[in-house]
Amino acid sequence: MTETETRGGWLSREELRDARERLPIVYVEAVPVRVDDRGVVTQIGLLLRASAEGTVDRELVSGRVLYHERIRDALLRHIESDLGPLAMPRIPVSPQPFTIAEYFPTPGVTPFHDPRQHAVALAFVVPVLGDCSPQQDALDLAWLTPDEAAALAAVGDMSGGHGVLLRQALAHVGHPV
Amino acid sequence: MTETETRGGWLSREELRDARERLPIVYVEAVPVRVDDRGVVTQIGLLLRASAEGTVDRELVSGRVLYHERIRDALLRHIESDLGPLAMPRIPVSPQPFTIAEYFPTPGVTPFHDPRQHAVALAFVVPVLGDCSPQQDALDLAWLTPDEAAALAAVGDMSGGHGVLLRQALAHVGHPV
Amino acid sequence: MTETETRGGWLSREELRDARERLPIVYVEAVPVRVDDRGVVTQIGLLLRASAEGTVDRELVSGRVLYHERIRDALLRHIESDLGPLAMPRIPVSPQPFTIAEYFPTPGVTPFHDPRQHAVALAFVVPVLGDCSPQQDALDLAWLTPDEAAALAAVGDMSGGHGVLLRQALAHVGHPV
Amino acid sequence: MTETETRGGWLSREELRDARERLPIVYVEAVPVRVDDRGVVTQIGLLLRASAEGTVDRELVSGRVLYHERIRDALLRHIESDLGPLAMPRIPVSPQPFTIAEYFPTPGVTPFHDPRQHAVALAFVVPVLGDCSPQQDALDLAWLTPDEAAALAAVGDMSGGHGVLLRQALAHVGHPV
Prior knowledge:
The structure is a homotetramer.
Chain A: H1 13-20, E1 25-35, E2 41-50, E3 56-59, E4 61-64, H2 71-83, E5 99-104, E6 112-113, E7 119-127, E8 138-144, H3 146-155, H4 162-172
Parallel strand pairs in A: 1-7, 5-6
Antiparallel strand pairs in A: 1-2, 1-4, 2-3, 2-8, 5-7
Helix pairs in contact in A: 3-4
């Protein structure tokens, strides 16, 4: 999960760090997809980001929900922040996420891990119709077929459990995993 | 549920009538909606149809799944057949329906009733982006706000349980019912 | 939502009040139900609580998720805390909630309102099999039929939007609302 | 999918064969699981059946919905028919399946294949609390851990796509696949 959004948030860096040691933090996560006319997922978008360790991470769209921000507004904000203002995401009509990913600071409690915090992430598959270009600190945006994405996610190359979440998303849209 | 689609199906009228007395029939139902950029439902589309009894019924999009037809293809076909070829529906990415409506030929078994058959209907909320115009035997297509639709559906004016299904759809998208 | 659970939490009362003015707080909400052998909901459990204003509120089970606590553990804890240690709840196998209720401190942003905080509540329908008895500050636990519960919820008597959530739960289990 | 249930159905063998060449047939499928107090899946039940080709197939619970039968009644009937009358299944409270598996007579249209028919299967994860013993033509009932089941399902040893469905069920309950 990227941290840049907190700069525009309601907490100073210190206060947020403090809260993160005390409270679960609400996140949204989006699996950006391209679909055909019949709603079949044809491609999955993955962000490539340089990690602190110098490796390249493949990531989903992810970020914090701010105080007094609606889930759907947070989804829209993070998708546009990561994929650009022309991405034209189709935000889901229902607030029902396909799953809840629970990121724990302690590895092994769940398949999801975030050393910085306990995050409760509401996960959605979000079709994007427009032009996408990686923003901010992302190096690139790669579009993979569902089969390629399923294979990549299985290798365990995606940090923090994003590979697990990606495969759960593929299962949810009916793709074999 | 309209019957016109069976003319293009794989069974003669007699054979279909026969099967309907013996087997549950697979249906899809779509609640057509207009949404804003954040996925909030702003309008619900209802078809106005003259019933056999001379009254005007308000209906959702509904129809049979044909042999060897995928659910998403049936959804697309019935939406275009009812709302016109320019409706531009966003067929859901996941095959998970928001509910299953079980129409029984005997009233009172479930909230759903169809005197002609036992139908198992997979129900989806489907945003439509394009121009919609009522097709075939529909008199008109009315766009209502969620509040108007909820009120109309509560009156019990919609035949066969479509009012119940409409209100379940509104609950699913987070609207108070 | 009751506040008693915070006494055993990880924050002092002052710290929690502080966080509540800055961050959305993660909640779980459970609609406790009795079911028959076929999974049909036969009764819904509502807590009766004396409000600060001296009226009696009807409430669902609801409470905060603690730091480093799993969603399913929070559900179990709050149900046992409200309905007693013999309630024997069937915690859902899937982390997918039937909806997300967004409680805002400002009325009217969503159908849900909590003057104390911005809460993001993951909502589940939870069958309870054992003996239930109201705990703590609850005056009583009332079991209503789905029809009675739907009627009560419609009157708008349940505080903060619990009536809306109850009706969304009934819609989710296939009951007409 | 086993066929024995059709003997007690409303169609003769010939009539059912006939309908199967013309209409999609409604099925229910259940992934039987053992859960702990917190709803975590600890074991998955798989039926071992001798196939016509002399091999042993691992299968989920699966069967046809009869005319005038409710989905939840069909689920209960097939689970008791396959796992015995003491299985004590917790039939889900909501009619919303976790997915729809579309079995086509032509391989490759979807991940699911049934040479006999086009079946539309509503899939549910169903905890069973009681004693289970394989019935009818099943040789055995094996209880696997989620990890064992995920591994077995990945090998492609389960016929007709039941391996895909099993992994989709595991993803739905939050297990890595």
